[in-house]
Amino acid sequence: MTAYLIKNVSVVGAAPTDLLIRDGVVAETGAGLTAPDATVVDATGLVALPGLVDLHTHLREPGREDAETVETGSRAAALGGYTAVCAMANTSPVADTAGVVEQVWRLGREAGLVDVQPIGAVTVGLAGEHLAELGAMADSAARVRIFSDDGHCVADPKLMRRALEYVKAFDGIIAQHAEEPRLTEGAQMHEGEVSTRLGLTGWPAVAEEAIIARDVLLAEHVGSRLHVCHVSTAGSVEVLRQAKARGVRVTAEVTPHHLLLTDARAETYDPVFKVNPPLRTETDIAALRAALADGVIDIIATDHAPHAVEDKECEWAYARPGMLGLETALSIAIDVFGGDWDLIAERMSRTPARIAGLDGHGVDPAPGVPANLTLVDPAARRVVEPAELASRSRNTPYARMTLPGRIVATFLRGEPTVLDGKAVK
Ligand SMILES: NC(=O)N[C@@H](CC(=O)O)C(=O)O
Ligand SMILES: [Zn+2]
Ligand SMILES: [Zn+2]
C-alpha cells in the first residue's frame, strides 16, 4: 500500500498542516512532516474535508444500466468528493429482498470507488401494499438500516406505522418521499404563479407538508426514526421545526437543486428542470437555506437521478423527473454557503454518516482515523460540461454554468480514487 504525504492542506478551514496517510489511516498530522517512502501531494491552497456521504443516490443497477451502473455512479461520486453513498431501492427488480440489496452491495465493493450502502424498499415492488422483507434485508450481508420507497410515497398511514414499528427493533430508519399522491395527480411542476401562466398541472406544497406532518406524528407515536427525503418547501421546514422542538426522532435532507433553482426554470420547457419534488420559489429557497444553517434540515443529499436521453430529451409532460447531482453538489454548497467549511463538513459528511451509521465515514482527518477524505480547491472555477461527466447520463441542470470549487483528490481508506482531478480507475 502506497503512503501519501499531503503537504500544506487546510483541514476543514484550519491553518495549513501536513497529513501522512499510511495503511488506510491518517498516521500523522503536523507541519513539516517528512516520509521518504510516501508520494507527496502538494495541497497548498486546498481544503481537506472528511469524505462526503450521500444519503440519497440513484445508481439504477440492476435494471437501467443504460442510465447508470453502480460503477459509473461510484466514479461520479468519487469525483464529487464522496467516499460513501446510499443507493436507493427503486431499481428493476426493486431492492426489496436480501438478494437484491446484497447484489448492489457486492457491485459496490467490486467497483471499489466509494462505499455503496444499499437502501431497502419499504413495500414489495414499491407498490405500497405489503411490507417488504425488512428483517431479512437488515440481516443480510448488506446490513440495511435505511428503508425507502423513494420515487413513491408510503401513502397508507397504517403501512407507514407498521414500517416505523418494525425497524425500531434494529434502530432502522424509514426515509419518506413525502408526496400525498391524491394531491399530485397529473402534476408537472410546482403549483403557483408560473404553473398557472404556463398552464401546467401543479404539485402543491401542501402535498409534501401534509405527509411530513402525518409522519412526524406517527414517528412520535411509535418512538421510531423518520427521515424526510428532499424537503422542498418553507411550510415543510416549519412542520419539522415544531416536531424537532418536541423531540420527535426526525431528520431531513435538502438537495442542492432545491437550494439554488426556482420554478421559473420551467419557462424554458427544458425537461432537465423537471424533478420530484418540483423546483419551488425564492421564498422556499430562503427558508431551506436558513433551515440548513440552523440545523432544522440536517443534511444535503444529492438525489442524484440519472436518466437515459430518451427519457429526458422529450416533451416536458413525458420526461421522467430527476437530475444528476453527485459531481456538482459540493460546488453548489460552496456557491450557497461560501467557505463555511465546518457547516459543509457537518451537512455533507459528519451528519449523513451518523444518520446512516456508516462507521469510519464522516470523521475529520486526525491521527488514527480511517483516511476517507477529499481535497478541494476552493479558488478554482469550472464550467459544467455534461459530456465530460463520469455519470452515464447527461441530465445536469447546471450545463455550461460556471461553478466554484474543484475536487482535486479523494481517498477511500487511504487509497486514492481521484488524483489531479481525475478518477484513478
Ligand atoms: N427525484 C426525482 O425526480 N426522481 C427520482 C425519484 C425520487 O427521488 O423521487 C428518480 O428515481 O428518478
Ligand atoms: Zn423522492
Ligand atoms: Zn430520489
Automatic annotation (TrEMBL):
Pathway: Pyrimidine metabolism; UMP biosynthesis via de novo pathway; (S)-dihydroorotate from bicarbonate: step 3/3. Its EC number is 3.5.2.3. Binds 2 Zn(2+) ions per subunit. Signal peptide: none annotated. Pfam families: DHOase (PF12890). This is Dihydroorotase. The keyword Hydrolase applies. The lineage of its organism: Bacteria, Bacillati, Actinomycetota, Actinomycetes, Micromonosporales. Gene3D superfamilies: Metal-dependent hydrolases, Urease, subunit C, domain 1. Catalyzes the reversible cyclization of carbamoyl aspartate to dihydroorotate. It catalyses: (S)-dihydroorotate + H2O = N-carbamoyl-L-aspartate + H(+). The gene is pyrC. Residues 47-234 form the Dihydroorotase catalytic domain. It comes from Micromonospora endolithica. Zn(2+) 2 binds at D150, H177, H230. The keyword Hydrolase applies. GO terms for molecular function: allantoinase activity; dihydroorotase activity; zinc ion binding. GO terms for cellular component: cytoplasm. GO terms for biological process: 'de novo' UMP biosynthetic process; purine nucleobase catabolic process. Zn(2+) 1 binds at H56, H58, D150, D303. Substrate binds at H58, L59, R60, N90, N276, H307, P321, G322. It is an enzyme of class 3 (hydrolase). The active site is at D303. Its cofactor is Zn(2+). Transmembrane segments: none annotated. Keywords: Hydrolase, Metal-binding, Pyrimidine biosynthesis, Zinc.
